[in-house]
Design a protein that fits this description.
The protein is an all-alpha fold. It has one domain. 77% of the residues lie in helices and 0% in strands. It contains eight helices and no strands. The longest helix has 27 residues. It holds the Pfam family MreD. Belongs to the MreD family. Involved in formation of the rod shape of the cell. May also contribute to regulation of formation of penicillin-binding proteins.
């Protein structure tokens, strides 16, 4: 029983680290701006599925690791991810009962909040200018969510993650 629980945790952490790798993977300049927020998508799924195990602290740690890997200001993405995952954790029971297309819309809105929080912190610290292109990942998250939801749910069921 303990081995099975440990196996489930390893599967979740493996998906989170795969999402982290997809997040930092170099892409051509043309599609780089519309890169989905793989880490946010994976964290949102696991927070909805297992909120008692993967929630705000996990989001903060993964965001901090993402800041380190991107060479960004320390804690910016950690704060933004923790904030939006807090909202997901707060409403996980409602989100679970919505159809996947409604979940996609709500997570796209939260993804927009995530990007606007990152922009706001960067604006305060370094006076960067707003470019609407920073919201392109919101559209790609909206499109990717149903596929990612299906894939992560299948992984969860195949590996009996509880």
């Amino acid at each position: 029983m303990a081995l099975q629980a440990a196996n489930g945790r390893a599967v979740v952490w493996a998906t989170l680290f795969l999402a982290l790798l997809l997040q930092i993977m170099p892409l051509p300049e043309v599609v780089s701006a519309a890169r989905p927020d793989w880490l946010f998508i994976a964290l949102a799924y696991w927070t909805m599925a297992l909120p008692h195990r993967y929630s705000i602290l996990t989001a903060w740690l993964m965001g901090l690791l993402l800041d380190i890997l991107l060479g960004a200001t320390m804690g910016v993405r950690a704060l933004a991810l923790a904030l939006v995952i807090y909202v997901v954790a707060l409403h996980f029971q409602r989100l679970r009962n919505f159809p996947v297309w409604q979940q996609a819309i709500l997570l796209a809105v939260l993804s927009g909040v995530y990007h606007l929080v990152i922009f706001w912190i960067q604006f305060v610290t370094s006076k960067s200018l707003f470019d609407p292109i920073i919201l392109l990942p919101v559209v790609s998250n909206l499109i990717i969510w149903s596929w990612a939801y299906w894939l992560l749910r299948r992984i969860r069921r195949d590996f009996k993650v509880r």
